[in-house]
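re the bet — no i am not wrong, look at it urself. input seq straight from the record:
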Amino acid sequence: MKRLLSGSEIIWECVIEEKTDVVFGYPGGAILPAYDALTKYRKKIHHVLVRHEQGATHMADGYARASGKVGVAMATSGPGATNMVTGLATAKLDSIPIVCITGQVPRPAIGTDAFQEVDIYGTVFPVTKYSYLVMDINDLASTIREAFAVARSGRPGPVLIDIPKDVQNEKIEFEYPRNPVKLPGNNFIKKPEKNKLTKAADLINNSKKPVILAGHGILLSGASQEIIKLAEIASIPVTWTLLGSGGVPASHPLNMGMMGMHGEYAVNNAIQEADLLIACGMRFDDRVTGDVSTYSLNSKKIHIDIDPSEMNKIIPVDVGIVCDLKNTVAELLPLINKKSNKDWFEIIKKWQSESKSRDIINTKTETLFGAQVIRDIWEETNGDAIIVSDVGQHQMLEAQYYDHDEPNTLLTSGGLGTMGFSLPAAIGASFAKKNKDIWVIVGDGSIQMTITELATAVQENVNINIAIINNGYLGMVRQWQELFYDSRFAETPISSPDYIKIAEAYGLDGYRVLSRKEIPSIIKKARQKRGPVILEFVVEKHDVVYPMVPTGAALNAMINRPSKTEIK
């Protein structure tokens, strides 16, 4: 039945039809009609008032990663919209489905340099999957429906819809359109080509030293069980990208750990020595490959991904299958022979033993190390928490020392490496996983970028624990300066406020931890609290995350942690 509705009301009608129940945003002049209309939809939409529009996009992002649904953020024109750009780029590079709705100046004012006018439609085109400018109210509903479909289809990604203020104010006879959404150029292949499956199976069955490379696509496709079966049948060790964490349980005996710049010693050596790489739902980016001219030169390569643009983009492959990962591996399994690859695993075990002997966890230290903090959080949470990690040394340490057995339990900015991501993303995730233990792992540099969202956390009383790893430096940059710039620490020492007083000012409980023996009791206290809690861990200032592959070096040219006798 048709109803006379304003453009603003149509926005909310459509958002609700897309099964959205929470929106993260910040009001302003050009989006004010939509916020006024929101008062009619309070029973169906919970709006979270952020403190900065970048925070809104990261919250929508965290919500999407944790829920598997499309996250929604809202902002006004001009600076409100441009503040979203970093969050959109973060979601784009990590293939996260979010829809951002922005207000725009009225149509007659567009192009006049009106107050708070910015061409956000054009600005965000490179950092979104698609963007829209709605100039006709009759197109509004269909545009919103299409935007959600674009965001979640194929390789997911962010979409922006820019809506002029006068379009929001206009009224039309409205009936929600229920005809199927047809997306030009969106005909994603759901069944793999049989001849390519046969070629892939032959390579797997004849390999002696295979490795599965598990990327974020395993989580996005829901292909974990299929990948595990493939690994078990053919006895193939599995390694993963940062965003592929949890795709195969860390406790599984075939899981070797993370690959790449800060990947496991055994993993990077195995990739370089392999005779077959099976890349599943991943990009061959520079943090994964190291020097591409030296990358796994003696291996055949199979690449399975839904995005055809990734095929042969960086690393040439022998079999490229453009298709949904879950469907592809399911059809591949009946063609795979059972085998053991015993000799291959003996080689890998020797590399693993060498790496373990250098692990800081196994070394008595006088000061508190970040790795120890993260390992103890893992132990105290029984590995059952959602970890929202920021970017820096602590991010790599989280990947190394917090073992994830479930998909979508590590949320972090992988492709863009966005500092300040973790706190707002954790707030967003808390609306998707209300009864889950959620931990923010964040550095003293990262937390200060979006610390204002503590007010949002308090206002919403979200149940998150914020673990600040405070080493007094921009740690990862300092590490590079130490290793490659003769320890010239230019602008990397960073001061911090008193985080315990900050906690008090916001009305939070706050704890400072100076030694490892304090960690278990403090974590227990934090977990007993309802609402946000700050835990500051004062750690070793000059620690280095090992192993590390220098930029431009071969993947197996790793800088390793000194042996026990060399650790001071």
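see?? The domain at 3-174 is CATH 3.40.50.970 (Rossmann fold). told u. also The longest helix spans residues 53-67. so pay up
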